[in-house]
Amino acid sequence: MVNRGTRVRRRVSGAVLGLLLTAGVLGAPVTASAAPPDGGLWFDDLAAEVSADGTRFVDGHGREVVLRGFNVSGEVKLAENGGLPFASTADARVSAEALREEAGANAVRFLLSWAAAEPAPGQVDEAYLAAATAQIRAFLDAGLRVLPDFHQDLYSRHLFDEDSWYSGDGAPAWVVEAGGYPDEFCGICVHWGQNITQNAAVTTAHRDFWRNRELTTPAGTFKVQDAFLDTAGRTMAYLREHLPADSFARIAGFDPLNEPHAGTYDPGQDSKQWEKDLLWPFYQRFRARMDEAGWADKPAFVEPNLFWNSNISFARQEGGLQGIGTLGPRYVFNTHFYDQAAMSGILMWGKASDGRYKGDFATVRGRSTALDAPALVSEFGHPLSGSVSDKAPTVLKAMYQSLDSRLSGAEWWSKAAGSGPVLSSMQWQWDIYNGRHHELMNGNPDRVLTEGDAWNDEDLSTVALDDSGTPVLRQDARLVDRLYPGAVAGRTLAFTYEDRSRDGNTTLTWNPVPSGMPNLARLVGQERYGVLVWRSDGSEGSRGTAARVPTELHLPQGFDPAATTVLSDLGAVTGLPSYTPDAPVSAAPEPGGTDARRLLLTAPDGAGLHYALVTRTTPVTTPALLAAAREELAAWVAGSGFPG
Predict the structure, then answer these.
(1) Residues whose CB is less than 8 angstroms from the CB of residue 201 and which lie 6 or more positions away in sequence, other chains included
(2) Average pLDDT for 357-363
């Protein structure tokens, strides 16, 4: 476990803030101005909004948005906290602050339980909804966007016997009891996911859901999909009613149902046809419930057949929401990706390397383009204990690399014009109770689970509590807390971040600055760095003020504004001043009142090509080196084929 010790408050002295080492571009130092106590700036209210614009997420200013964060959390799959991610709202607040400060997140996927929300037929538990709403608000108050998700795995925990090797989550006990399903049995299964296609209880229950089977209970007759949609609609209406308007603005949308699968197909039907015939109509019905509940201006984050992009050929099933045309601005293409070959321990020997997931995430980008909808990779990750955990540092670095860019590190500098959009993503998972659970597996008092995630032998949580009850990272902070463009005033043309994260004692550097730019290479040295190239089209609004809405990048811990260097067409700056509307390069707290910081790049009016390299300041940084490095960077941009 990586314990980062006492959190360092990143306060910046006025003297350092005023220091601008220019390369003949900037004029006098910009006067720092005090930000509001919660870190909010004049443009942050509209910035909270998220909508779909073609293949991009955009905020209320029309800026291109990247969502980055974690799933909160697999605790919902357990009974110990009643289907909630946290035992208390106080724990949720602590976790939200840690997500901002330790992991650099700007969004979370917040899991909800159908079983907890509707414990009896037609009866929604408002106490559960109130507790969930309070926990969601803890994240909204910290400045995070929230994507609620009705979660299910293997349909329901109530399908499984007390002595079963496996468990599920999702549907309430009364649904399973009325279904009369066969005794669960997976056969020869080495991973819990095999139950999805091999366990007759699971496959039959899923099939019933998609065909809206009528169930008879002591309380009356219910159609199972209708019952779920009714509860989802009432949940959304509750959230809309009980969240303040400024908080509800940060709700990104809704994920209708986690990892859908047909269960079994009709004769002659394949997975692609099932998506068209049954999955897509379900999403349209869910979309209607969103509209009725007051969510008409928020997109539905819809998932395809979960096996559509499996990287094991015999597990892959045709899908990706093909054959339904484009999605339009009311939907988001929402998918997961796990390296099942690496997780198998058999099908991938060794560790991940530079560019391993280029093709996998190109497939996601391709479906986004075909559907004319933004893409979110709402789950990805790798086990942090067990026989394949040694692969985790390289697997996750390679995944983040391909979320950031279409290119490998080895080719990024030479082919950067093909880097493409940055994918939004949420890692699985963020469970502060990791290793401290007290879960009775399937209600069995003789099987108390405490280790890992306490669910089907998984252990993927990036966080755990130390002995003092403080959330600490279990992964290299340099991998988790990343530089990324949270909001771009225009269109991203290229982005890369060399995190120099570690695999044991080895520092992984997959994207060094080319030797053909010796001054830039000397400036960066062995430090972390990122490069963003974007084009402003001059249309990003500013609500009638004279100020321009800036481009924002999250600054990881260690990128103290006082010791951060930026090389840009907007200036060459060491020691970032506090934000003012007339400062081309500046820093500010991120909204929410935590110690998280952001870099703000304010371009002049009109369309134009812009670039910025961000790194940490080192003793070699001098005005002369800044000027020489900036000249090399400008020449590289000019010669890389970016559209003018």
Answers:
(1) 155, 159, 181, 182, 183, 184, 185
(2) 97
